[in-house]
Write a structure and sequence with these properties.
alpha/beta, TIM Barrel, five-stranded parallel sheet, three-stranded parallel sheet, 11 strands
Length: 391
């Protein structure tokens, strides 16, 4: 293990659990809801195991299980039994973390979407809630292999704010440390993030000390179909992966310019899997436009500029950037930057025959050249330990 990974007890702030095939069928009444319960079956059209919510296919069962895989994405394993057990088995995951130089991982879902939006396709509020709770229960069990190192984060039934608050209270008692939230609720016909209807949600999260995590790719999936069919699939996939990262600029703009940060000053927000190199430009642009357009005169109660709200309570995660990391630290400081690997997704820092990635401990050693140890300690451990209330 390289020195930096050893010295700083690295907290990886974006990794994904690969859900087992029986997650919901073993916890939600199949007798009551039948095939509406999320389940896996073989899809002969695509020649792979796939998840189905009712009669609707939602994704490949092993589509996110790409760490170390031997074929470039979007090609993927057909079944989970073809991949490294560390992708889906907790003790094997802990061993992989030891090998990579990772002390703890903040955990995100796959199957129901990175913001729980796919549950809405079930079209039955009782079943939707049961599935959210089943996921949170399962993740509690999975993380119990070492809850200090495998850090659970809850899904919420975000389509119902009162139910969301109840589930936040329930999951927090089970040890969940944060909330996985949809960044594009309007895509599902729900209020904008700046709508006052969300205020009980923000208030409850603030009171419970639960950071709100906006993972990319939680709404409009336009980038999957953006290209003309003449563009080859690997090029399409590369473009999609890059563009999704920038969507969280819209989330940040709503939080800082729409008054959410102003009204909830002790609530932390995390922009997940979005990188950090673009943040200095976006914040400089927001500050300039805020003053240039007279927003500071229109909103005299806002005592901070957009960039200052960001520095007080918003965080960005990076995992592959090199040349952009030091300028970001120079411009933003180290207090708002977190490290991630995105394990075990196609873009993760996971060496294999079909990736340009290197081992996380090797990457950390190379990427942090020129960054002082105090800043390293914040980015690799301290910032995440603080906002997720880790020991």
């Amino acid at each position: 293990m390289n020195k930096a990974a050893h010295d700083f007890r690295v907290i990886d702030t974006d990794t994904h659990v690969i859900e087992p095939y029986d997650l919901w069928t073993s916890r939600v009444s199949v007798k009551k809801w039948g095939d509406k319960v999320p389940h896996v079956k073989w899809d002969p059209t695509m020649n792979e195991d796939a998840w189905f919510f009712g009669g609707d296919r939602t994704g490949a069962a092993a589509g996110a299980a790409m760490a170390g895989w031997h074929v470039y994405p979007p090609k993927r394993p057909q079944r989970l039994d073809q991949v490294d057990p560390s992708l889906y088995e907790a003790n094997a995951r802990l061993a992989k973390m030891d090998d990579y130089g990772i002390y703890a991982q903040i955990l995100y879902p796959n199957v129901a979407g990175f913001g729980a939006g796919k549950y809405l396709g079930l079209q039955d509020p009782e079943l939707m809630l049961a599935c959210v709770q089943a996921y949170n229960d399962w993740l509690t069990e999975w993380s119990s292999a070492n809850p200090k190192r495998l850090v659970a984060q809850m899904a919420v039934p975000f389509w119902d704010i009162a139910l969301s608050v109840k589930e936040m209270e329930r999951a927090a008692k089970m040890g969940h440390k944060g909330i996985v939230m949809c960044g594009e609720p309007t895509h599902f016909g729900l209020p904008k993030l700046t709508d006052p209807q969300w205020e009980p949600f923000w208030a409850a999260a603030q009171e419970m000390g639960l950071p709100i995590n906006f993972h990319i790719g939680t709404g409009d999936m336009f980038y999957f179909t953006m290209m003309h069919e003449r563009v080859k699939p690997h090029a399409q996939f590369a473009s999609m992966g890059a563009l999704f990262s920038l969507d969280n600029a819209a989330v940040i703009s709503q939080l800082v310019c729409g008054g959410v940060c102003h009204r909830f000053p002790n609530l932390n927000f995390v922009s997940v899997e979005s990188g950090v190199g673009w943040l200095p430009y976006v914040l400089a642009s927001l500050d300039y436009q805020w003053l240039n357009c007279g927003a500071h005169k229109e909103n005299p109660e806002y005592k901070l500029l957009p960039s200052e709200f960001f520095k007080r309570q918003i965080y960005g995660c990076f995992w592959f950037e090199r040349g952009t990391l030091k300028p970001s630290v120079d411009l933003l400081g180290a207090d708002n930057i977190l490290y991630e690997t995105d394990y075990p997704h196609p873009t993760s820092m996971s060496p294999g025959p079909a990736t340009s990635a290197i081992r996380p401990d090797d990457y950390i050693e190379q990427a942090f050249v020129g960054i002082d140890d105090v800043s390293k300690a914040k980015i690799l451990h301290g910032n995440a330990a603080r906002i997720y209330h880790l020991d």
